[in-house]
Amino acid sequence: MIEQPSPEVVSSRSAPLFGFWYPAVPSHTLLPGRMKGLQLLGLPIVLCRDRAGGLAAMRDICPHRGMPLSFGRFDGERVECSYHGWQFDMKGRCRCIPALPEQGTLQTDKIGVTTYPAEETDGMIWLYLPDERGHIDPLPPVPRMPLPSEPRQSFHISLTYTCTADDGIIGLIDPQRARQLTEQLLRGIRENRGKVAVMDITGVPSIDSAIANRLVQTVEAARLLGATVIVTGLSPEIAQTLVTIGVDLSKMNTVGDLQGGIELAERLLGYKVIPVEEVAPRTL
Ligand code: FES
Questions:
Q1: Number of separate domains in the chain
Q2: Angle subtended at Cα 211 by Cα 206 and Cα 217, rounded to the nearest 5 degrees
Q3: Strand 73-74 relative to strand 79-80: parallel, antiparallel, unpaired?
Q4: Which of 70, 94, 99, 204 to pair with 265, CA 20 to 30 A apart?
Q5: DSSP 122-155
Q6: How far does residue 69's CA lie from ligand 1's centre (Å)?
Q7: What is the distance between the alpha carbons of residues 83 and 93, in angstroms, rounded to a whole number?
Q8: CATH code of residue 35
Q9: Class of residue 234 by CB neighbours under 10 A (exposed 0-12, middle 13-18, buried 19+)
């Protein structure tokens, strides 16, 4: 007999998505005269804000011997590598090599670090990470985030979520998926004359305020159709978003997990849930 190898869990090796703008860090976390090292799509990047508030994003690898530039010093104009003291300006050009003799003819500004376009909007610092074509000219505009109507409020929730870019997109609810969710749910209620619907969002780590509003509108629309919606699997981050935009969670049927949601649905429909152990065995 040939034994089947046990199935292995293999992590996704899909390629990151280059050629797009990405929100890197909230603006307020990078003060003038400071720098910050970070990783985006696996790339080490050092983000600098000069004294006037201008931004620079460079590859966080010194072109001399590969030391992370973020380990060095930033005086508000130049980044100085901590290893041999090479200095780079906000355009990534080398402006000083301390070990060079004074009469040396080497043009240091011919040496440079890869830089990335950086812009600031909606309270976030965005970086454009080019694909193999390099920087395209003109760059596409930075995406605008949906903001609630007046009085305008802007907030962000950050969460470390270890995954590849496309795994992350699959696990999140974007506006298109939120619209589909609403349409499918309402269609299902109408076609099946549904009285109770269970909406399970287990595994969705966070949502923005526009998606949260869509969720609330879906529950309200279902109520108008005569159905009760039970939302299950709310993460603490999503609950926090709903509270932040002013949703009264006591008016929403929320249950911790899907099984609890189905049990509540059965109770609302008048079914009695009997644990299997309590069902008397049938005699033949
Ligand atoms: S490694 Fe940066 S100056 Fe030498």
A1: 2
A2: 130
A3: antiparallel
A4: 204
A5: TTEEEEEE--TT-S-SSPPPPPPPP--SSSP---
A6: 8
A7: 17
A8: 2.102.10.10
A9: buried
Quick one: which atom of ligand 1 is closest to the CA of 81? 2
- Convert the pLDDT of each residue in 195-221 to its tens digit: 888 888 777 777 777 777 778 888 888
Pick the residue whose CA is nearest to atom 4 on ligand 1.
Answer: 84
> In this structure, is residue 283 part of a structural domain?
no
Of 103-107, 157-161, 177-181, minimum mean pLDDT range: 157-161
Ligand 1: distance of its center to the CA of 135 in Å? 26
Atom of ligand 1 nearest to the CA of 72: 2
pLDDT at 165: 54
Matching residue, tokens 């976390």: 29
In a domain, 155, yes or no: no
Q: pTM (2 decimals)?
A: 0.53
Is 235 part of a structural domain of the chain? yes
Ligand 1 pocket test: pick from 58, 60, 61, 64 the residue with the most ligand atoms within 8 Å of its Cβ: 64
Pocket of ligand 1 (CB under 6 A): 62, 64-65, 67, 81, 83-86
Backbone angles phi, psi at 22, to 5 degrees: -130, 140
Domain, as residue range, for 238: 169-268
Q: Output the residue whose Cα is nearest ligand 1's atom 1.
A: 65
Answer yes or no: is 177 within a domain.
Answer: yes
